[in-house]
């Protein structure tokens, strides 16, 4: 990894325009922090003031490469900080099972004891059948992803944030990286375009494998009624419905709005009871809960038929699924590579981030889903 060449470092002669100008007369020298913080020459000797506050390469919030020659691999604590930044910017991943991998592949072990294992016991009869546990494994494989961006030297020199701009850009790029990862994990199909073709997402995986359970629904005017939601629940095998409190619906923004609108809450009963009374207020009516007259809109979670519903903005239109949150497995490989290079001919600083990322279902049999757009 190349380092930016700094010239006219502050010297001791104090002669303006000389080969080694004074401490306050460094010409054209600047330093910036963030990923690839300057380590050689020392940041404290660069710039036109001796106490400039440049980016750090350590500390609880640092996401910088180690600075070792020809190395852009983040230290373990820095890599974990980068991964935390990504998770913080996602919706679905925060609700799933997240693992940090030490290699490109990882095996997740499963155990299943099946259904109806007990039998009647007869007196003085030794007939019996042993029921054994079934062991299996799910393989989580990562895909190498990259993120490239650049910032001009002039932008770093002239902006009001100064050297802090580079740190700011790193945070913005990390958020964009997280959004793209969630989009890819949901909508990836392994075939379409430069982005979605990277890998198949959760929806593509369970639809292609055929082990999940579809509820064929008819949804007119985005009316996700209790009957429609109940049909999705009934599509789930009974052994999973027994753990109903742990199940969760996931819906796109449009479907989520339809679910909230068409599934009554306690406020409906309150509003109906007070409908003919002056004491009734708009806050007790369903229209208010749907977002009407609210400054910041409605909540992003609701509850239907005793099961939580989570809005996922990147979900396809008209798609809803039901599963356990921990059924989705998200994997990040710990060796995150961040390269920072100054390109003299362009007078820019270029960044390249390499990450290995993978997703997998732990148990596709524990998925029930409905696609109103496809069924229409």
What labels describe this entry?
alpha+beta, disordered N terminus, globular, 376 residues, 22% strand, 6-stranded mixed beta sheet, 5-stranded mixed beta sheet
Structure description:
By secondary structure, the chain is of the alpha+beta class. It has a domain at 211-331 and 362-375. Helices cover 24% and strands 22% of the residues. The chain contains ten helices and 13 strands. It has helices at residues 76-88, 153-158, 164-187, 202-209, 226-235, 238-241, 253-262, 266-273, 286-289, 372-375, and strands at residues 97-101, 105-112, 134-141, 143-152, 213-214, 248-251, 301-304, 307-311, 319-323, 328-333, 337-343, 348-361, 368-371. Strands 5-13-9-6-8-7 form a six-stranded mixed beta sheet. Strands 1, 4, 10, 11 and 12 form a five-stranded mixed beta sheet that branches. Helix 1 (76-88) packs across helix 3.
Compile the SSE list and pairings:
Elements: H1 76-88, E1 97-101, E2 105-112, E3 134-141, E4 143-152, H2 153-158, H3 164-187, H4 202-209, E5 213-214, H5 226-235, H6 238-241, E6 248-251, H7 253-262, H8 266-273, H9 286-289, E7 301-304, E8 307-311, E9 319-323, E10 328-333, E11 337-343, E12 348-361, E13 368-371, H10 372-375
Parallel strand pairs: 1-10, 5-13, 6-8
Antiparallel strand pairs: 2-3, 4-12, 6-9, 7-8, 9-13, 10-12, 11-12
Helix pairs in contact: 1-3
